[in-house]
């Protein structure tokens, strides 16, 4: 995690398609993060050479670059298309190159884009992976159904889903560093709250 005044939000796009609707949705979320005062970066896995983990015996420079980017982030947004009820192999492989060292204590947001009517299963799987990596996963998440009709080449057209995506982007900025929050709350305030709730 970085020590910058502005939180750093990184989005990892799990789609390798040039016309990826996942990428478009992630960009909307990052724009909202910037409006909330964060610096942002989109990790486009098309630009990374990441062979299947342990497929080569030599060091993988782009894997080191990915780990460093995630390690420096205050918040990470994981975005993936829904492939056969789960998240993409490209994102799985990228996450396999990372560890708890990069993710522990990091605020994580989740976004899924599906061609069909019933998205959500990929989010469940990504939430499990993120918790295993000891990240702090935001309760708000975004599942976009029927993406061909809801996301065009520039934006999310559905106002409700667009607002939910923007909210996720804002929360990635606002709750960056959430793992440190208990240390920032005065003990007297905690004691007062506990006595008034009985």
UniProtKB/TrEMBL annotation:
GO molecular function: FMN binding; oxidoreductase activity
Cofactor(s) listed: [4Fe-4S] cluster
Signal sequence coordinates: none
Database matches in SUPFAM superfamilies: Flavoproteins
Organism, scientific name: Haloarcula pellucida
CC annotations in GO: cytosol
Family: Belongs to the SsuE family. Isf subfamily.
Residues in NADPH-dependent FMN reductase-like domain copies: 9-145
Coiled-coil region: none
Identification of the protein by name: NAD(P)H-dependent oxidoreductase
């Amino acid at each position: 995690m970085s020590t910058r005044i502005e939180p750093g939000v990184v989005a990892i796009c799990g789609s390798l398609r040039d016309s990826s609707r996942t990428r478009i949705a992630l960009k909307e979320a990052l724009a909202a993060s910037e409006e909330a005062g964060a610096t942002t970066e989109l990790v486009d896995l098309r630009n990374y050479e990441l062979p299947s983990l342990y497929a080569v015996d030599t060091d993988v420079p782009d894997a080191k670059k990915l780990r460093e980017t995630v390690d420096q982030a205050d918040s990470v947004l994981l975005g993936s298309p829904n492939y056969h009820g789960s998240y993409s192999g490209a994102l799985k492989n990228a996450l396999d190159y990372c560890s708890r060292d990069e993710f522990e204590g990091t605020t994580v947001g989740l976004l899924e884009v599906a061609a069909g009517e019933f998205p959500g299963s990929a989010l469940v799987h990504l939430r499990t992976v993120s918790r295993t990596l000891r990240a702090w996963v935001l309760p708000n998440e975004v599942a976009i159904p029927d993406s061909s009709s809801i996301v065009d080449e520039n934006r999310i057209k559905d106002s409700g889903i667009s607002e939910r995506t923007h909210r996720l982007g804002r929360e990635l900025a606002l709750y960056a560093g959430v793992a440190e929050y208990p240390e920032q709350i005065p003990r007297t305030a905690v004691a007062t709250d506990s006595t008034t709730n009985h």
